[in-house]
Amino acid sequence: MTTDWILVRRMASELERALGGARVTDVGLLDDGRMAVRFHRKTGAVTLAVDAFGTPPSLALDDAEPAVAPEPGWLRAAGAALRGTRLQAVEARRGDRVLVLTFGASSRFGVGSAFRLVLELVPRYGNAAVPRARLVVAAAKQFSPAENETRSVQVGLPYAPPPLPHGPDGATPLVPRVLAEAASASGADPVLLVAEAEAAAADDGPVHVYRDGAAIAAAHVVPLAQYAALAHATAPSLLRVLADARTSAHRAQRSDAAERRRSALLTRIAKRARATAAEVENVDVRIAASADREALRRSGDALFTHAVEIAPGTTAFVPPTDPELTIALDPDVDVKTNAQRYYARYRKATAAIPHLERRRATLEARRSALDVLAFEAERGDPTALADVEAELDALEGRRPARAAASPARPRAPLRLERPSGARIYVGRSPRENAEVTFRIARPDDLWFHARGIPGSHVVLQAPPGRTAGDEDLDAAADLAALHSKARNASRVEVDYTERKYVRKQRDAAAGLVWYTNARTRIGRPRPDDATRRPAEVDSTGA
After folding, report:
1. Do the domain assignments include residue 157?
2. CA-to-CA distance for 223 and 240, rounded, in angstroms?
3. What is the mean pLDDT of residues 477-503?
4. Which of 39, 64, 338, 497 is geometrically suited to a Cys-Cys bond with 518, CB 3.0 to 4.6 A?
5. Around 6, how many Cα atoms within 13 Å sit in the side-chain half-sphere?
6. Are 25 and 9 in contact (CB under 8 A)?
7. Shared domain check, 424 and 358
8. DSSP character for 499?
9. What mean pLDDT comes out for the span 60-71?
10. How far apart are CA 386 and CA 410, in angstroms?
11. Are the C-beta atoms of residues 461 and 406 closer than 8 Å to each other?
12. CATH code at 59?
């Protein structure tokens, strides 16, 4: 959604009502990069979050406190000027998207001082400046007349607001585009619609919100006829609507970024899987060729046995003791040398067999790991995708990427409490699988996994002092089936065994383990968490 000068007037009204008389306790940056002015008021502390350079620029009231992190120099100067002052007034410049917050303070000698925080909420040209009297003491962006012919903003020089945009007559404010479109769609007079909108902004009436699905497409203080086909509702606060719009937009951006990351990860996995399959085929060819090594030994034996019967210069020989064998000979060397060559080829082929078999086992383990990683990448959330990337990097021998400066808190494995007192843990990523199996599970806890297919590690901890009953076993098997690649099947074979019989495969991905002493139950995947009985509780907190 976009904002215009009428909505900025509404912002000014709401801010003065919410923050009038409040004292500034801190100025800094939030974790997401927005400017933060922290206020203390009778009803508690609140933060004015300013995104002067967003698309569109916007304001919001937030509970977050400024981050403990290095700040830009201009923000330190702004903080030094504003801390301890009280908000006296909030004004909007008619016809322009400029907000002016006036702060005042008195010294112990009764000498007053006044600062203004000027927020220029103009797309692509946003800025924030702090003038005292007429002189600028801090500014987010500074530029000279050489960079902008119409005005300059420089610390130590007088502050001049941006030139006002005017309508065709050069006197009245420009009709906002969204209101011009509304007037055109409804047949109303644009000037009268602007006057109505100004009055509505001053009266703090309802805000009309139009949604396209979950996203906020538009909002204004008057109805917008051009959005009549969208879902319409009213809200009491424009600042709250702006905060919701920003949250929705960021959620969509994160979702898009996660899907791009997922797609790139699946492409990497598929490419590595194709290369591994080609290598397996090549090894199979070599193993098949080595299977003929007995014919090489038989050829050497036959040449030594019938050496006196073979004339010099012979190119092929069929031994009478093995008529199905035709032995190719090099006519330039004697029979003994030909026999020695066949023995040498036999020894080489025999020695290669263990190496080829070990290589094939390694490649098959890699194929299984890639199959697991593809499954995890398809189902994983952004946190799980980072785990899959780390596992794929390790599988490919890459150096892991440098961690982010402030990584998100790792998600805990899914934990469910059973009516019997039993507890079930479910891993939903390679890291969670390893945590469930090798950190949370105790030696005699039961470990479940869908047989022969990628899936979650599920651990069942029996009720204290008792063994797990059939209902608990079925619930764990159902969860293992639900969180597996066969989740759309009606029945899934699920192996289970004591945790002490499970061990990690050497040099393998986190989801690959060996296990013994397994029994099998039938798991029935039930979507929408139907495996949870009414009395069960999801206590992950995720």
Report:
1. no
2. 18
3. 93
4. 497
5. 27
6. no
7. no
8. G
9. 80
10. 10
11. no
12. 2.30.310.10
Q: Where are the beta strands (DSSP E) in 388-510?
A: 414-417, 423-426, 446-450, 458-461, 492-498, 502-504
CA distance 177 to 224: 11
Boundary residue ending a domain (396, 423, 439): 396
Tell whether the torsion through CA atoms of 80, 85, 87 and 88 is positive or negative.
negative
Question: Per residue in 338-381, pLDDT tens?
Answer: 999 989 988 888 888 888 888 888 888 888 888 888 888 888 77
Same domain membership, residue 508 and residue 443: yes
> Residue 488 belongs to what domain range?
414-538
- DSSP 8-state secondary structure symbol assigned to residue 437: I
Q: Is residue 327 part of a domain?
A: yes
Tell me the pairing of strands 458-461 and 446-450.
antiparallel
Shared domain check, 130 and 16: yes
Do 438 and 485 fall within a single domain? Answer: yes
Q: Which of 498-503's residues contact partners 24+ apart within 8 Å by CB, and which partners?
A: 498/443, 498/444, 498/445, 498/446, 498/447, 499/437, 499/441, 499/442, 499/443, 499/444, 499/445, 499/446, 499/447, 499/459, 500/443, 500/444, 501/447, 502/437, 502/447
Residue type at 282? N
Task: Note whether residue 254 is domain-resident.
Answer: no
- Residue 166 clears pLDDT 70, i.e. is over it: no
CA-nearest of 244, 183, 255, 198 to 233 is 244
Residues 392 and 420 in one domain: no
Of 19 and 53, the structure prediction assigns the larger pLDDT to 19
| 426 neighbors 540 (Cβ within 8 angstroms) | no
Calculate the CA dihedral of residues 505, 507, 512, 514 and round it to 10 degrees. Answer: -10
In this predicted model, what pLDDT tens digit does every residue of 460-477 receive, in sequence order?
A: 999 988 999 999 999 999
Please tell me the total number of residues recorded for the chain in this structure: 542
**What value does the mean pLDDT take over residues 95-119?**
82
Q: Which helix (H) or strand (E) holds 135?
A: strand 135-139
Three-state secondary-structure class, residue 133? coil
User: In this model, does residue 537 exceed pLDDT 60?
Assistant: no
Does one domain contain both 285 and 390? yes
**Per-residue pLDDT, 507:** 67
Q: Which whole number is the average pLDDT over 19-29?
A: 93
Burial 11-23 (b: 16+ CB within 10 A, else e): bbbbbbebbeebb
Whether residues 329 and 423 fall in one domain? no
**Which value, in Å, is the radius of gyration of the alpha carbons in the chain?**
37
Q: Is residue 249 part of a domain?
A: no
Residue 232, beta-bridge partner list:
210
Find the Cα–Cα–Cα–Cα dihedral 266, 269, 270, 274, rounded to 10°. 180
DSSP of 350-392, one letter per residue? HHHHHHHHHHHHHHHHHHHHHHHHHHHHHH--HHHHHHHHHHH
User: Is residue 12 domain-shared with residue 118, that is, in the same domain?
Assistant: yes
pLDDT tens string 84-104 = 999 999 999 888 899 999 999
Per-residue pLDDT at 64: 82
The number of folded domains in the chain is 4
For residue 412, which of 224, 282, 540 has the smallest C-alpha distance? 540
**Taking Cα atoms as reference points, which of 97, 98, 26, 91 lies closest to residue 65?**
26
